[in-house]
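Box S1 | Example of a co-folding query
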Amino acid sequence: MEIPPPTYTVVILLLISMFSLLVLSMLKICQQRNLLKNSNDQLTNLTCLLSQLPNPVFQTDNRGTVCFTNETAVVFLKGLNVQLGEALPDIWMEELTSCISTGDCITKTIKPADRYLDVQIIPVTNPKVVNFYIRDITKERQKEQQLRLLNGVFEHTLEGIAIADCNGIIKKVNPSYMNITGFSAEEVVGKPVAIIKSGKHDDGFYLEIWKSLIENRHWQGEVWNRRKNGEIFPKWLSITGINGINGDLSHYVGVFHDMTEMKLREEKIEFHAYYDVLTDLPNRVLFSDRLNSAISHAKRYQQKLAVLVLDLDDFKHINDSLGHYIGDQLLKKVAQRLVKCFREEDTVARLGGDEFMMIIEEVKKVNDVVDIAVRIIASLSQTYFLEDNEIQTGASIGITIYPDDGIDINTLIKNADLAMYRAKDAGKSNYALFTKEMTEMVERRMTIEQNLRYALNRNEFQVYYQPKIDTRTLLITGTEALVRWNRPNGDLISPDDFIPLAEETGLILPLGQWVLKEACRQTKIWLDHGYYFMTVAVNLSAIQFQDRNLLPMVKQILHESGLPPEKLNLEITENILMMDVDAAKQIMRQLSELGIHISLDDFGTGYSSLLYLKQFPIDFIKIDKSFVKGLPHDLDDAAIAKTVLSLAKHLGLRVVAEGVETKEHWEFMLQNGCEEIQGFLFSKPLTNDSMSQLLTQGREMVLKSR
Ligand code: C2E
Ligand code: CA
Ligand code: CA
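Box S1 (continued) | Returned holo structure for C2E
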């Protein structure tokens, strides 16, 4: 069959269109395939991108179940004990819920353990998921904190800090820098570090600093700078070079502290190493130093120099009664007055307490030194007015001369000391020049002291007896026991030389006990020989009187010797009564109750009045021999002796006069009603044998034999 031509066309057209359609649909398929392929590639790319992200990224559904993670998030979630498909821990849920409900992103820093995490939570609406982006910011935070710390140090440290660039131009200063220098930051930033230069150091000094900085990047040392107000001050500075990021030197940091206070303190310490804190006078150290150089100088130029030691009289008493504050004020005043008595070039030092020492150089005549000593005593004796107190004191001065009395510092000081003690002994407000005899005296004293310890055990002591006589009848009434020390070398040492030493060393206790025992024993023998009138007076030292063992000791000796107590007379001195009035009264009463008599020895040498003494149970008063000596011609002595005698009579006390050496003494006592006398006129102290012999001759003391 024949197909008509238009039909062909239609068919052909149809075929063409069908083919086109086919091609088109083929093309579309291809296109779609390509598209699919492309988006797959993109997904792979994205996943790869996500998984390679250094920070954890993950996604959860709206209930918090993890549905996607990148690789770092796997590790991160593992840390939270969560895996893909599992829910986040509860603490994350709050943010998640609020994020979903508001649809807002949340950015938050959370701090698990010692890490800091920046968490960004972003809700996605379709599908309903939530993306988590985590960033570990621990390192940044740590750096930040470190910086804050450094800044705190910079701002608050007491050290001044300046940061300068490598050309020495100040870039930054801290508040302490401003405090110390007085400059504000605006005034110094942009200026060279030398802005606070003091001008005290030369160029070489700064060159050295720069040299060290270039070579070692470091320098430290003491520098003097100038404050804004012009004052220069010392500081301890440490400069360090700091490298920049590229490793090259970028800045210098200078850290310093102000040494002004420290220097002042050092100076003060140094000052007080050489000067007395109270008076600001040179102290012992500086004094020795000055004396040494003065001696060298005097030696070189063949000159004399004088060393003076001064001790205030009664200072201890003033200190004790008016208090240490007034005592200190007095010492200051004394120091001021002393300094005025000397030339600038002389040294006036305080060695401690109330002891001062002076050096006078280039002495021409010893008399010049004596004149100064006299002037000092006159000046120091003037009344002091201290806080409503009128104080009177004096000074005792010892003088020694180089090279006459000694050539070295120790000898000179020792000799001046000795002379000072001699001046004190001679009465207060006195001076004394050192003499060779003083050393001999001291040496003698030292030998006595050394030997005294063994003397008792070696039986070197002996009791002597001096008769006491009835003034009217001249009959012996008893004796006074007086101890003697017979040295093995034949010396007979007087008690005045060793009793004070025995008191100082405490030896007086066994010695006094021995004397009492011996005296009681001997007197009992005389009594037993028929000398019924015999009594014995034994001297009691203050130390013995204060000894708690006194009463039992006396009782025991009386008991052992068999001497009736009324035959014993104990001689005490006034100082005992001054110490502790009540205690003294009690002991005396106890002794009295035993039947023992008590005499007050050396009456008149102390300060007490007879009326004061009346309160004590005293039986006898012994007028001191120093008042007897001038009788009858010395009007003072006569007046004193008469007063004592008449008062004693009124008070019912018996009086014994000591030191009756002449007939006139005896007659005076006889005329003035003194009951008993004792003295060389009748007899010196005798050994017990001689005393026994005297007794056998008869009780009556025969005057005509004298
Ligand atoms: P004192 O108790 O005042 O004794 C009297 C002193 O005067 C004795 O000195 C005696 O020898 C001395 N004397 C006596 N008659 C005369 C005289 O007419 N003219 C002069 N110038 N002196 C005379 P002595 O024995 O050297 O004793 C001195 C001091 O030693 C005593 O003074 C006494 O305080 C103390 N003493 C003596 N023996 C002892 C003792 O056993 N114990 C204590 N604690 N002290 C004693
Ligand atoms: Ca006596
Ligand atoms: Ca006496």
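The chain has a mean pLDDT of 90. The first helix runs from residue 5 to 52.
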